[in-house]
Amino acid sequence: MARGNRSLNSSSSKWRYCNPAYYLKRPKRLALLFIVFVSVSFLVWDRQTLVREHQVEISELQKEISDLQNLLFQVEELNKVHGGTVAKIDTKGKTNKSAKEVSDDPVDNQRRDKVKEAMLHAWSSYEKYAWGQDELQPQSKSGVNSFGGLGATLIDSLDTLYIMGLDEQFQKARDWVANSLDFNKDYDASVFETTIRVVGGLLSTYDLSGDKIFLDKARDIADRLLPAWNTPTGIPYNVINLSQGRAHNPGWTGGESILADSGTEQLEFIALSQRTGDPKYQQKVENVITFLNKTFPDDGLLPIYINPHSGTTGYSPITFGAMGDSFYEYLLKVWVQGNKTSAVKLYRDMWEKSMKGLLSLIRKSTPSSFTYICEKSGGSLTDKMDELACFAPGMLALGSAGYGPDDSQKFMSLAEELAWTCYNFYQSTPTKLAGENYFFHSGQDMSVGTSWNILRPETVESLFYLWRLTGNKTYQDWGWNIFQAFEKNSRIESGYVGLKDVNSGVKDNMMQSFFLAETLKYLYLLFSPSSVIPLDEWVFNTEAHPLRIVTRDEGGVVKKLNEKKQKPFPRIGGRKEGRTG
Questions:
Q1: Superkingdom, according to UniProt (predicted)?
Q2: pTM of the model
Q3: Active site residue 458
Q4: Exposed end of the chain (fewer CB within 10 Å): N or C?
């Protein structure tokens, strides 16, 4: 009789299994009982621990697969150069590759193509209705100069067009930069926004293409921004008139400088000094860090307002969201930009202090244990997190490699937990798009605070880093879901718009320039091989403009880069694409 059909109805058969002597005579059954006991113990083990360990194993396996795919891709590249089909180089120094040169997942290819088509739709709408202006208002089919008429969307999009291989669109934009871009405007510009979008966009495109017109234009606008740093402390004013050079702070800050606005120019101005050989740009922005380091707190957390005359930080919030975020991001990324040498160790040391402070702001929601970053005012914490703070998972993942094994795993795990929270910012609304910020209440997990969505990139940025650094394709799936939500709710015939309310889905009338610069670029790279903008050769500024990593020598002496080594970056596709939309 089969073992599973034995009768257990008799009294003796019911109770004999409770007698220890029964098992002592039957060691095989004792072993089986032990196995059952252990199995049940595992089943009742804390579910989150099991899930986390399972995800780590999957991540390690997928990372190995990703590494093998990248190795295969590199072998194919070498084969084409040595005996195979040699990639054609045109007279402008661009590499025109065929689609067959890229060996990756067919699903990734399809998703990447969809993102590329979305970029074409956004770009062609801008080109048709707002050419040369800062931003497109898709519903009214008109342009608006949100940044003084500097062509913000066009400049922000240059490197995205280049990376995606949209040559025809890129060339037209390049010609506008060469012939029409004029910075001599009687306009009070944000030093921060102009630096990250315009200086960063131009320098990135120079690094990618090798076309010197972009470097010349970057130097022009940077020279107009420099007087903002002429303060007693070196902490810059945050607003400057581009034609007259008058600098000041916004009235609504009470004359104070904003932390993020004052500490998010280092990558761009250091890169400009390296590419021009002129140290003045680097000196201005590094003086800020030197000054702040003199009184940098043990927890590395600074309030969002700083007096540019005295350097004092008054009573103001501490946050990894609006007005604080990218200060901490750049402490890490200047270290990466300098190739992690002793010349940039100060930045890493300050960043690690700040990460100790970040740990003190971490809380978990109930009942679902979503990990989130609180804001701090004085000695009290507020259970609120901006979507802007969703850059932090990517930052933590990128910085985790600089720690020893234990701390590295701790910060990577924190990055993954925060990314799950940020993804749920999207998944928890009817439109599957995130609100601007969220509040956490005991027993209720998260709820939307400010409910608009303006096409922000921070969550997909972190998904990009986590996929690159773990190989876990779950992050690609999350990103795809977010992209589909944008397609469903934000795409209209004349571009992409934000939502006034993520609950109702009511649309606004603005296509933010960072949607093309960041959101679509990170989504495209999320579905591209790791050899496209590899993280050991490039560092992204806070507007997603990649800058080449340049090793910093001891003492930080600026040396002009050899222009002959400024090779154009090869892309996945080099063919010309037709317009859509």
A1: Eukaryota
A2: 0.81
A3: yes
A4: N
